[in-house]
Model the fold of this input.
Amino acid sequence: MKKNNINVMMLRTLISLRETKSISRTAEQLNVTQSAISHTVRALEAAINTPVLVREPRGVTLTAAGISACESAGIALDSIDNILNLSDSSVSGVVTLASIVSASRVIVPDVLTHLSRAYPKLDVELLIGTDEEVKEWVTLGIADIGIAFDFDANETDILYTDEFYLVCAYHQPNPAKVTLDALSEKAFIMSAAGCETPIQRLFKQAGLTPKVKTSVSDMNALFAIVSAGYGISIVPGIAFPSHWRQLVIRKSLTPQLSYNLCLISANQKGEERASNAELTDILAQAVKQSAASNKNTITC
Done:
């Protein structure tokens, strides 16, 4: 058995599969893609060197080893909760987290769950906006920290690097190589969910202008509109819903487009450190932990 390869995501996945008997419903329950669930199962089976899941026509069931592992997983998660409850319950106050829409789908829920368990007296206020709004809120002190795409961040502020993809309807042409020159001639659906700045920057650097047909702030609506053939779009991996394969084709761009999703703080901009520095540090650490645990499954 390999050591140090079992993580909390594996435990949560196993327990959810026992309850739902469905990879798709488990993916929805854990807010990840179905392929991420399959990858997690394979990684768990490799770690314990035995199958835990049997795939059947109407769903999945756990093997005897899987059932045994699931019971141990429940005990382990309970123990983790107990450890979290040992944290200083005297920590209290209010912190404000600003985030772009796409990051609020995966990273923010984990942050809120962790903090509610570890620091029940800590109140987190949430602001959702574009990259520019997130940075402005942090700069003005309206938010303590933010999550946004940043082009000039220090390396220590980078949560992870996210790739941007072309998305188009299944009935549209599916070229092997996707270039900006070709995309600039097509009707474009612009994401207004925190992705517009890097996309516009990409076209500008290439000396091109996208033919924006409409802008959409709700990512589920954007994918539905693209699926209907109304236009194409460019979307970061973090923004893909779990059921995207049912809606669109995804292609990497040539050259590949990637941007850094970063932790934005007033401190990195040279401003005065917030008066509630301890609470801000707790929030920042929770964001970093969530990003680290999710970065391998976000773009599956």
In short: The chain has two domains: 8-84, 94-300.
